[in-house]
Request: fold
Amino acid sequence: MKAFSMPFARAFSIRPIVILVHVVTLWIALLTHVTAAQAQTPYLTTYLTEVPAASLVEGADGYGQMRSDLPVAPVLRGGETIGWAFVTSDFVGTTGYSGKPIHVMVAVGLDAKLTGVKLVKHSEPIVLIGIPEAKVAKLVNEFIGLDLVAEAAAGGSAHELDIISGATVTIMVIDDSITRSGIRVARALGLGGLTPLLAPTGPRYEVNPDAQAAEDWFTLTGDGTLRRMSLDVGQINGAFAAMDDPRAAARALTDPDDTTYIDMYATLVSVPAIGQRLLGETEFANLTDWLDEGEHALLVAARGLYSFKGSGYVRGGMFDRIILVQGDNSVRFRDRGHRRVGEIMADGAPVLSEMDLFKIPADAGFNPAEPWRLQLLVQRDVAAIERVFTTFDLGYQLPAPYLRPVAAPAPEVPLAQETATESAAQTALWSRIWRDKTVEIAGLGVMLSALTFAFFFQNFLTRSERATTWFRMGFLTVTLVFLGWYANAQLSVVNLMALFGALTTDFSWQAFLLDPLTFILWFAVAASLIFWGRGAYCGWLCPFGALQELTNRIARKLGVPQWTLPWGLHERLWPIKYMIFLGLFGVSLASIEQAEHLAEIEPFKTAIVLKFVRAWPFVAYALALLAAGLFVERFYCRYLCPLGAALAIPARLRMFDWLKRYRECGNPCQTCAHECMVQAIHPTGEINPNECLNCMHCQVLYQSETKCPVVIKQLKRRKSASDSAAALDRMIENHPNMKKGI
Reply:
């Protein structure tokens, strides 16, 4: 075995991450190709069986057959069609804070008014922070009665939007997706007199790269290159006074009415002439490098009492006060597509407090030659944690000098093509998310590389107990802070249940690719199970496991007593986590949603994803588990973790046994068994691969010259042999006759 294992280890140590990256890339490409048709399966197919018609539309008794050309299904009452049901995500992008779709099932009547709205699926952590699900569901129900004819005429802004403080972006996504998808469905079906949109039959235009822009700010605002929206305090107070909520008027601003509330400017700096004039040649060159093919850039600048950026993007990565709207499409801006501008280069530019660039993605369906508007969301506190909102629009049309005609007229755009385009945009969503997560992916790659290197060369690392300890503590700190609290890359048993559910229904890799770090981690876990078992993840890459171990180390330093459970009791507590996992798995076969609720036995969401900012029962539960871990190291990992149980089941399939043992281990020596942090070593000396976390401490002891009796005995033998040889040499030197005899 030794003759085979060492060359094998050396072979695998040569650029392992490079090889892994190529394998992952090829694997993703093949799977994406094979499952492309499955990825396009409408979400409506799933929810028609899960959401009874009566719960969506009052008085309905069933659904008809889903149309083959459009993901909509008739809502029936007594055999007659009273409306049409659809899922927003089948028509428009519905990505929220979490980077995952927010699915809303909607019913629209024959008069193009909404008759039913139901939030059926979301992964928004922000909604869980002190905001009951019932409150969100109540707000969603208020969309019933929305007139899509009026919305189509007003560009989706004919209604007032109530927003829950703390979930601004989530509610905006829901509102936008319901309105835009509803209009598309109503147009496609001809409801309420609406008709499908046709591409313009007249001349089409594109950006003219040879256009020239004026040199001074005054002329640029006068000719429409820069569009301005100026609001004073009087206008803002008047807008809130006109709202139904009297609290908004009661909290009016006390500044003079003519005080500038916000003086905002916007333009497209991706247009060469405009960008070069406002940013200068050097910064425009940097902008060009920043933008990928098909992307555009918006400059927004302002001054006044109100900030168009706010601070929400610091917490969730999304700017929740501005949104770009063009036709039935809308674009929200994220922090990774944002840059600050240091200076406006146009002559006579005013002093502005905010100057920022926002990237418009290539898959947003944005046409710079067509009109668009920038919607500003203005908020006002009306209670300790409550706010009301109103919106103002800044309209923009690129002036004619910056455009040139396109020769060929465009044909009619059928709805099927429009739907296919939206579907393609959804398919491309995961690649955009991966680009946005470049830093996190690179960081995870470094971590996996370091851990792989440490495992393959553990014999060298574990020669020094000090080096091993520092490496482990440093790695666990990075796992907790970077992988857990920063990147939220905490795996969960819910991922496994979702994967099994997807395999038994309409499987789509797109849903899993939307979270790149989770996808990479699961791929790494699958590979590590073959080589090292569950310990690679549970012992090194689990943020909550790292939190337990680090807090236990601190407790030890503070003198907190450590409890070692009797082996008989410890061995009988092991099966609890397997029972929990099998129970969750069984429930998931009947209802994945119910299983997800029961999976709250995992404290990961509370302690890692939400960083303890949650309702007190969840926080108390997580803290109780951590408190138990102060006395019994890795208490939760040992006895309660269903994810650990799920990973332990295939752990015995590992192909290699990297942990070295002596024949004397367990009989008579018990040093490793006594010092194993999770008591994964049997009194007889065997290491239980289902429980081992690969902390390498037993390998440190294996080579210890102060703790391992076998090593100490070997050293004594060597010293004795060396002493005997030295004594013989001295005798020979002292007795010349013996030397001659020899």
